[in-house]
Amino acid sequence: MTLASAVNEYLRRPGDTGFSDAKAVIVRALKSVHEGGDFHTTDYFNHSFIPDIVGSWPTADEDREERLFFLRPHHHVEFIRGDLRRLASLRPSFISLSEGDPDLQEIEDSLDAPVGDVAITNTYALGVLGGQKGRLRRERLAAALFLRRARGIIGEDEAKEVDGAAVGFEAAMGAESAGVVESLNVFAKFLQEDAAAAINRYMYYLWTSATAAAYPGAIPADQWLEREEVVEVLRYLLERGDLENERFWGRLGKQVTLDELESLGEVGPTENLQRLMGFASSELRTRAVHVDRADGQPSLELDTRFLWSIRDRVLQVANHSTVLRVVDDLRRLRGVSEDLQGPTMAELRNRISGYQLIKVALRSTGFEADLRAVSETPAIQQRDLNAVADDIDPTAEVIRATVQPPTVGSPYDCDFRRSIVQAAREAEADEPLANLVLAAASLLANVTDRERYRLREALGLRTVGEEL
Amino acid sequence: MGAEGAHIKGREGVFMAKSWLESTTRFQIHFTVYDSEAQVTLPLADGRTKAFDMRGLHIQDDGRTNRCPLYVEVKNCDTEGGQGQQYEQYLRDCYLAAAKQRQDGVDQETEFMWLTWHPFSLGKWSRLCTEEELRSALTSLDEALVDEDLIRALPARLWLVVLSRRQQEMTMGDRLLGEIRRILTAGEAL
Question: Cys bridge to A267: A216, A310, A330, B39, which one at CB 3.0-4.6 A?
């Protein structure tokens, strides 16, 4: 059953409920073309000036961009002329629901003037751009932009042309000039000028990440992608087939931010994400890491590979028994236990070899002390602090501790009750993600100094400022 | 004017009528005969069917609680033409459509509108939507189809509208309609 026939089956039902059901079908189709878009329906159907569906999506400046979708049972030249006269300034999209539309080219020929930034399309075009499962990310990226910013008269054939032009992204990564140029031409024809410029920036971003050769398109005046554009490109790169190009991922790893990765929402443990994180983990900055142990075992299972993924907008690295979640803001963590068992003072001392214990809080005694303050030596020396720590009851349960890592950077606060390690509040800068992840695994999951190298390998991390 | 020309003029008339009715904000036109004849066709009590030019809703002032179905006949005429005779047949069809709905137990108090650009039957213009004129249109009707209650009720559900070629200039412009659109698409109550 085609999208058009599904819609018309609802429209043929008596009464007004058929409209809302038909619109729900179209909303699902729009959503399949642009997963990141929000689409809400109005109470109107086929109205002269009130849209049937309002689509919106976030933009770089935290604002939302909108496109109005007007559903039309048919495209008639006389009606389109009126629609254009009244609504063209809104740059809307008119979607014909007809099961047997007249040739859209005939409509184009009958119009007195070009349609400008308006899209006149149909359900068959939507079907091409969103219909098949297992579509490659490059096609979804092109389709999403198309939905938001298409212009002109676009039927099924034109939609296929756009769909096919998405291979230009692959061409850009493969440094194939002809493919890039051909793709840019198609996008320039069917996308509003600023959207075509954005595609050119994507291409330029991919091309320059792949090669130092001269870019075959017009070098964009603004070479930087907007945040949402970066997110779209990242999603495409991470979900596409394996790309074994160390130089490409290395360059991308230096550019990507934690916020951009989090904005992806959900990304499975793809090989490309592992490649990216291999480089990005030493470049990214963050504030906290939460360690979630499924099995409650005292030590990490290091023989199983840890894989990076993004779940519910949180970057994490996990194996079968342990999940380490990386967050800038602790409020982002959901379902965190609040009263876990902390290590004994003796266990903590085993874990922190290589670190310097500078603050500690015990549960049973209520003892809480800055060891630096109780140290007899004014200078903060590990030997002296260790001597103070030795005086604490080794069986006492530690609920919080602050340690100075052997790396550069600020101390870390460990909250054992919640299994969270975070950069101490006074830290001016966020910590290198790799360092904080490693510290969290060491301090919360009991990885000894000797095992830390294996952990680093298992995580694929390159820590900053630490001699390996 | 040839058949094709008349066809184009008819479509232009339907489009103008639709956009004018909707710009009043009191009507929504969901289908035209050019979209789907089936969607604008009503069964009649005498077994025939009648295809109108448009189908939609007449919306009461609160916008939600009372939305009467509306069927519209559009006459994009520059002269009186044969409107007088056509109107009489139209009245009869409106009655038979309403009677059929009553017979089927689905009387939604459907309203009917004759919308033209040229007046007609000027000698009885003021009576065209009255019970008297309706009875006159039904004189040859099979007695079994006569429903006195419906004959008295139907005139209140009839509309007769004459539009000006400059009608669009008498409605809100795009700026004000844009404000209404902004409110309605945001889901705010008017």
Answer: A310
Contact list, A78 vs chain B (CB under 8 Å): 8, 11-12, 15
Q: What range does the domain containing B182 cover?
A: 3-186
Per the CB < 8 A criterion, the answer to whether A235 and A267 are in contact is yes
Q: What is the ipTM of this complex?
A: 0.91
pLDDT at A227: 73
Residue A85, both tokens: 């006269």
Number of domains in chain B: 1
pLDDT digits (tens, 9 = 90+) for B89-110: 999 999 999 999 999 998 889 9
- Which residues of chain B make contact with A72, given a CB cutoff of 8 A? 35
What is the per-residue DSSP string for B114-130?
A: EEESS---GGGGGGTTS
Q: Best of A17, A48, A68, A81 to disrupt the B interface by mutation (most B CBs within 10 Å)?
A: A48
Helix (H/G/I), strand (E/B), else coil: A185: helix
Checking if the pLDDT of A385 tops 50, the result is yes
Q: Is the pLDDT of residue A133 over 60?
A: no
**Mean predicted confidence (pLDDT) in A102-129:** 83
pLDDT at residue B46 is higher than 50? yes
Judging contacts by C-beta atoms under 8 Å, the chain B residues touching residue A54 are: 185
Q: Give how far A140 is from chain B: nearest CA, Å.
A: 27
Buried b (16+ CB within 10 A) or exposed e, A144-173: bbbbbbbbbbbbbebbeebbebbbbbbbbb
DSSP state of A81: H
Chain B, nearest residue to A85 by Cα: B174
Write out pLDDT tens, residues B139-183: 989 999 999 999 999 999 999 999 998 887 888 888 898 998 988
Q: Distance (Å) from the C-alpha of residue B39 to the closest C-alpha of chain A?
A: 7
Percent of chain A with pLDDT over 70: 84
Q: What distance in Å separates residue B103's CA from the closest CA in chain A?
A: 17
Question: What is the predicted pLDDT for the residue at B87?
Answer: 98
CB B14 within 8 A of CB B74: yes
Contact status, residue A273 vs residue A429, Cβ threshold 8 Å:
no
A212 half-sphere exposure, CB direction, 13 A CA radius: 1
Nearest to B35 among A50, A74, A89 (CB): A74
Would the CB atoms of A79 and B11 count as touching at under 8 Å? yes
Q: Which of B15, B22, B35 sits opposite A49 (nearest CB)?
A: B22
Residue in A345, A343, A371, A367 with CA at minimum distance from that of residue A357: A371
pTM beyond 0.80: the answer is no
Chain A residues with CB under 8 Å of B11 CB are 76, 78-79
Rounded Cα distance, B80 and B163, in Å: 13
